[in-house]
């Protein structure tokens, strides 16, 4: 029995394993360091604080919302950010196109000959820039739609079925497309240009702007008339500056039948020659155009630099002629009539004035 007893030594229990030497600080990888917590302590801590499931609080919130409500916050946020960037980029590109056609291209041309006059060149630049801006916004709108998950197929369909869509839109917006097409034709054939002086339905003004939809006319009294391009392309318009701004203007004056026509003609020619805006190197003439009921009509013809000064020149010359006619005794007639009354024979009514003769009583009959 004593032989079975083996001597008990303390070092056999506590020192039978050799402890590994601690690693140097530079050899420690924090990513591989783990801590083994007791199971009871781990059970009482939130899962995002311990173990391999540890993560930031924001990520845990995002995961909770995604699991609970089925909403992917990260995906939605990135989509909204892309849409905002698309809107900003579209606006910036459109502004760059507008500024390029308004400022940069004229600077690049620098007065060089382009084969067209300045008004036509300005009209083309305005219309082309607006076409390009509309194209930029259309492309930006399609890209914007493609970022929405539910509408991405719609954007692809718009591009794939552009022909069918164009026909459908054409029927739905005939008037608008008619104005756009008319605007393009007006720019190509340019019956008028931006800055031209015109007469439109009895109103004198100038073309202030030409857009894809309408034409803006500013009248002589400051009014602005917005006319759809389809009407402008079909309306009769007098363009005073399409080729040569110099125009012939007239002043009509009526004199009595017994007035001296030669003297009146001399006064009218002198009034025109003295006016500073009348072109002296062009023909100035007076013609008798009509024998009217109350007198003779004389027409003064002269040329002026442009239509814009016609009204003021007309008024000033007419006033000068009137003052000279009054001074020279040339009568400007006015309408008058002689009324003659005829009474019956033996009547007491005066045949010239229609008044009963004095001292006679029409009631007494002898």
UniProtKB/TrEMBL annotation:
Gene3D superfamilies in alphabetical order: 1.10.287.1260, 2.30.30.60, 3.30.70.100
Domain Mechanosensitive ion channel MscS C-terminal positions: 250-332
Mechanosensitive ion channel MscS domain: residues covered: 175-241
Q: Membrane-spanning regions, if any?
A: 73-94, 127-148, 154-173
Q: What InterPro entries does the record point to?
A: LSM_dom_sf, MS_channel_C, MscS_archaea/bacteria_type, MscS_beta-dom_sf, MscS_channel_2nd, MscS_channel_C_sf, MscS_channel_TM-2
Predominant place of localization: membrane
* Name of a matching Pfam family: MS_channel_3rd
Species of the source? Candidatus Methanocrinis natronophilus
Per the record, membrane topology reads: Multi-pass membrane protein
Which PANTHER family did the record assign? SMALL-CONDUCTANCE MECHANOSENSITIVE CHANNEL
The identity of this protein, by name, is Mechanosensitive ion channel family protein
Q: Which residues form the signal peptide?
A: none
Q: Where in the cell is it found?
A: Cell membrane
Q: Which keywords are on file for this protein? A: Cell membrane, Membrane, Transmembrane, Transmembrane helix
- Output the superkingdom of the source species: Archaea
Family label: Belongs to the MscS (TC 1.A.23) family.
